[in-house]
Amino acid sequence: MSAKIILGLTSSVAVYKSAHLLRALLSSGCRVKVVFTPAATKLISPQLFSALGADGVYVDLFPEALVNDGYHIPLAKWGEALVVAPCTANTLCKLAWGIADNLLTTLFLAMSDKPRWIAPAMHSQMWGSPQVQSAVQRLSSWGVQFIGPTTGALASGDSGLGRMVDPEEIAQVILKQGG
Ligand SMILES: Cc1cc2nc3c(=O)[nH]c(=O)nc-3n(C[C@H](O)[C@H](O)[C@H](O)COP(=O)(O)O)c2cc1C
Protein backbone atom coordinates (compact mmCIF):
# COMPACT_ATOMS: atom_id res chain seq x y z
CA MET A 1 0.00 0.00 0.00
CA SER A 2 1.46 3.33 -0.99
CA ALA A 3 -1.65 5.45 -0.74
CA LYS A 4 -1.39 9.15 -0.12
CA ILE A 5 -3.65 9.96 2.82
CA ILE A 6 -4.60 13.29 4.36
CA LEU A 7 -5.21 12.90 8.10
CA GLY A 8 -7.38 15.70 9.49
CA LEU A 9 -7.24 16.46 13.21
CA THR A 10 -9.78 18.48 15.22
CA SER A 11 -9.81 19.58 18.83
CA SER A 12 -11.24 16.55 20.60
CA VAL A 13 -9.44 15.15 23.59
CA ALA A 14 -9.24 11.91 21.57
CA VAL A 15 -6.66 13.59 19.32
CA TYR A 16 -3.81 11.95 21.25
CA LYS A 17 -4.90 8.66 19.63
CA SER A 18 -4.26 10.11 16.19
CA ALA A 19 -0.52 9.73 16.73
CA HIS A 20 -1.14 5.95 16.77
CA LEU A 21 -3.32 6.25 13.68
CA LEU A 22 -0.51 8.06 11.87
CA ARG A 23 1.96 5.34 12.91
CA ALA A 24 -0.39 2.57 11.76
CA LEU A 25 -0.85 4.18 8.34
CA LEU A 26 2.87 4.84 7.93
CA SER A 27 3.82 1.30 8.92
CA SER A 28 1.47 0.02 6.22
CA GLY A 29 3.40 2.00 3.63
CA CYS A 30 1.06 4.98 3.27
CA ARG A 31 2.33 8.52 2.89
CA VAL A 32 0.46 10.85 5.20
CA LYS A 33 0.08 14.62 5.39
CA VAL A 34 -1.57 15.92 8.58
CA VAL A 35 -3.94 18.91 8.58
CA PHE A 36 -4.98 20.47 11.90
CA THR A 37 -7.81 22.80 12.76
CA PRO A 38 -6.35 25.79 14.61
CA ALA A 39 -8.17 24.60 17.76
CA ALA A 40 -6.57 21.14 17.51
CA THR A 41 -3.14 22.71 17.99
CA LYS A 42 -4.29 23.79 21.47
CA LEU A 43 -4.46 20.12 22.44
CA ILE A 44 -1.53 18.59 20.56
CA SER A 45 1.56 19.86 18.77
CA PRO A 46 1.97 19.54 15.00
CA GLN A 47 5.66 18.91 15.70
CA LEU A 48 4.83 15.54 17.23
CA PHE A 49 3.29 14.39 13.95
CA SER A 50 6.21 15.76 12.02
CA ALA A 51 8.61 13.85 14.27
CA LEU A 52 6.59 10.67 13.82
CA GLY A 53 7.15 10.80 10.07
CA ALA A 54 4.30 12.72 8.48
CA ASP A 55 5.02 13.96 4.96
CA GLY A 56 4.02 17.42 6.13
CA VAL A 57 1.91 19.15 8.80
CA TYR A 58 -0.42 22.03 7.97
CA VAL A 59 -2.56 24.44 9.97
CA ASP A 60 -2.85 27.75 8.12
CA LEU A 61 -5.50 28.37 5.50
CA PHE A 62 -3.35 31.26 4.31
CA PRO A 63 0.26 30.10 4.48
CA GLU A 64 2.93 32.73 3.95
CA ALA A 65 4.11 31.26 0.66
CA LEU A 66 1.08 30.41 -1.45
CA VAL A 67 3.37 29.02 -4.13
CA ASN A 68 4.28 25.96 -2.06
CA ASP A 69 2.12 22.86 -1.66
CA GLY A 70 0.62 23.99 1.64
CA TYR A 71 -2.74 25.39 0.65
CA HIS A 72 -5.96 23.58 -0.01
CA ILE A 73 -5.87 22.91 -3.77
CA PRO A 74 -2.36 21.40 -4.01
CA LEU A 75 -3.10 19.39 -0.86
CA ALA A 76 -6.39 18.16 -2.35
CA LYS A 77 -4.60 17.11 -5.55
CA TRP A 78 -1.90 15.28 -3.58
CA GLY A 79 -4.30 13.35 -1.34
CA GLU A 80 -5.97 10.17 -2.58
CA ALA A 81 -8.23 9.97 0.47
CA LEU A 82 -9.10 12.03 3.54
CA VAL A 83 -9.81 10.82 7.06
CA VAL A 84 -10.89 13.20 9.82
CA ALA A 85 -10.06 11.46 13.10
CA PRO A 86 -11.07 12.64 15.58
CA CYS A 87 -13.92 14.77 14.25
CA THR A 88 -15.55 17.19 16.71
CA ALA A 89 -19.24 18.07 16.70
CA ASN A 90 -18.25 21.54 15.50
CA THR A 91 -16.31 20.34 12.47
CA LEU A 92 -18.88 17.65 11.66
CA CYS A 93 -21.64 20.25 11.43
CA LYS A 94 -19.45 22.60 9.38
CA LEU A 95 -18.63 19.83 6.92
CA ALA A 96 -22.30 19.01 6.46
CA TRP A 97 -23.15 22.58 5.52
CA GLY A 98 -20.13 23.38 3.39
CA ILE A 99 -18.56 25.87 5.75
CA ALA A 100 -14.94 26.33 4.68
CA ASP A 101 -13.40 28.60 7.28
CA ASN A 102 -10.14 26.77 7.99
CA LEU A 103 -7.72 24.60 6.03
CA LEU A 104 -9.35 21.30 7.00
CA THR A 105 -12.94 22.30 6.26
CA THR A 106 -11.86 23.87 2.96
CA LEU A 107 -9.88 20.77 2.02
CA PHE A 108 -12.88 18.57 2.76
CA LEU A 109 -14.82 20.38 0.03
CA ALA A 110 -11.87 20.33 -2.36
CA MET A 111 -11.60 16.54 -1.96
CA SER A 112 -15.28 15.84 -2.68
CA ASP A 113 -14.30 13.51 -5.56
CA LYS A 114 -12.17 11.28 -3.30
CA PRO A 115 -12.93 8.77 -0.52
CA ARG A 116 -13.58 10.59 2.76
CA TRP A 117 -13.95 9.04 6.21
CA ILE A 118 -15.00 10.63 9.47
CA ALA A 119 -14.31 9.15 12.91
CA PRO A 120 -16.38 11.24 15.35
CA ALA A 121 -15.40 11.78 18.98
CA MET A 122 -17.61 13.67 21.39
CA HIS A 123 -19.75 13.37 24.49
CA SER A 124 -22.85 11.21 23.99
CA GLN A 125 -25.18 14.21 24.49
CA MET A 126 -23.42 16.02 21.64
CA TRP A 127 -23.53 12.93 19.44
CA GLY A 128 -27.26 12.53 20.08
CA SER A 129 -28.09 16.18 19.39
CA PRO A 130 -30.36 16.88 16.41
CA GLN A 131 -27.71 19.14 14.91
CA VAL A 132 -25.06 16.41 14.85
CA GLN A 133 -27.46 13.66 13.78
CA SER A 134 -28.73 15.81 10.95
CA ALA A 135 -25.14 16.47 9.85
CA VAL A 136 -24.36 12.74 9.90
CA GLN A 137 -27.38 12.04 7.70
CA ARG A 138 -26.44 14.72 5.18
CA LEU A 139 -22.82 13.60 4.92
CA SER A 140 -23.76 9.91 4.68
CA SER A 141 -26.19 10.66 1.85
CA TRP A 142 -23.25 12.09 -0.12
CA GLY A 143 -21.12 8.99 0.36
CA VAL A 144 -18.97 10.19 3.24
CA GLN A 145 -18.19 7.14 5.35
CA PHE A 146 -18.43 7.08 9.14
CA ILE A 147 -16.20 4.97 11.33
CA GLY A 148 -17.94 4.88 14.70
CA PRO A 149 -18.32 6.36 17.18
CA THR A 150 -18.36 3.53 19.66
CA THR A 151 -19.71 3.10 23.18
CA GLY A 152 -17.43 3.24 26.20
CA ALA A 153 -15.72 5.48 28.72
CA LEU A 154 -15.68 9.15 27.74
CA ALA A 155 -13.11 11.74 28.79
CA SER A 156 -15.71 13.46 30.98
CA GLY A 157 -15.90 10.37 33.19
CA ASP A 158 -19.30 9.44 31.75
CA SER A 159 -19.89 6.37 29.64
CA GLY A 160 -21.87 6.25 26.42
CA LEU A 161 -21.89 6.50 22.64
CA GLY A 162 -19.38 9.03 21.31
CA ARG A 163 -15.98 7.46 21.88
CA MET A 164 -13.61 7.46 18.89
CA VAL A 165 -12.96 4.03 17.40
CA ASP A 166 -9.48 2.71 18.22
CA PRO A 167 -6.84 4.03 15.81
CA GLU A 168 -5.70 0.59 14.64
CA GLU A 169 -9.30 -0.22 13.69
CA ILE A 170 -9.64 3.08 11.79
CA ALA A 171 -6.44 2.28 9.90
CA GLN A 172 -7.76 -1.18 9.01
CA VAL A 173 -10.98 0.25 7.55
CA ILE A 174 -9.03 2.72 5.41
CA LEU A 175 -6.49 0.17 4.25
CA LYS A 176 -9.15 -2.46 3.48
CA GLN A 177 -10.98 -0.03 1.23
CA GLY A 178 -7.83 0.73 -0.63
CA GLY A 179 -7.01 4.08 0.95
C1 LIG B 1 -10.22 19.64 26.68
C2 LIG B 1 -11.28 19.73 25.61
C3 LIG B 1 -11.70 18.59 25.01
C4 LIG B 1 -12.69 18.63 24.02
N1 LIG B 1 -13.12 17.48 23.46
C5 LIG B 1 -14.10 17.53 22.53
C6 LIG B 1 -14.56 16.32 21.93
O1 LIG B 1 -14.11 15.22 22.24
N2 LIG B 1 -15.51 16.42 20.99
C7 LIG B 1 -16.07 17.62 20.60
O2 LIG B 1 -16.93 17.62 19.73
N3 LIG B 1 -15.64 18.78 21.15
C8 LIG B 1 -14.67 18.76 22.10
N4 LIG B 1 -14.23 19.92 22.65
C9 LIG B 1 -14.81 21.20 22.18
C10 LIG B 1 -14.12 21.64 20.89
O3 LIG B 1 -12.73 21.78 21.11
C11 LIG B 1 -14.72 22.97 20.40
O4 LIG B 1 -16.05 22.77 20.02
C12 LIG B 1 -13.91 23.57 19.26
O5 LIG B 1 -14.50 24.81 18.87
C13 LIG B 1 -13.87 22.64 18.05
O6 LIG B 1 -13.04 23.22 17.07
P1 LIG B 1 -12.59 22.41 15.75
O7 LIG B 1 -13.76 21.57 15.34
O8 LIG B 1 -12.31 23.51 14.79
O9 LIG B 1 -11.37 21.63 16.09
C14 LIG B 1 -13.25 19.89 23.64
C15 LIG B 1 -12.80 21.05 24.26
C16 LIG B 1 -11.83 20.97 25.24
C17 LIG B 1 -11.41 22.24 25.93
The CATH topology corresponds to: Rossmann fold
- The unreliable regions are none
CATH A-level architecture: 3-Layer(aba) Sandwich
**Count of individual helical segments:** 8
Oligomer: single chain
Number of structural units classed as domains = 1
What structural class do helix, strand and pairing data support? alpha/beta
What's the end-to-end separation, in Å?
Answer: 8 Å
In total, the number of strands is 8
CATH superfamily: Flavin prenyltransferase-like
Bound molecules: flavin mononucleotide
**Beta-strand residue percentage:** 15-25%
- The radius of gyration computed from the alpha-carbon positions, rounded to a whole number of angstroms, is 15 Å
* Strand line-up of the largest beta sheet: 3-2-1-4-5-6
Biggest sheet details: 6 strands, parallel
Mean pLDDT level: 94
Element order: H for helix, E for strand: EHEHEHEHHEHHEEEH
- What is the top-level CATH class? Alpha Beta
Give the overall form: globular
Give the helix level as a range of percent.
25-40%
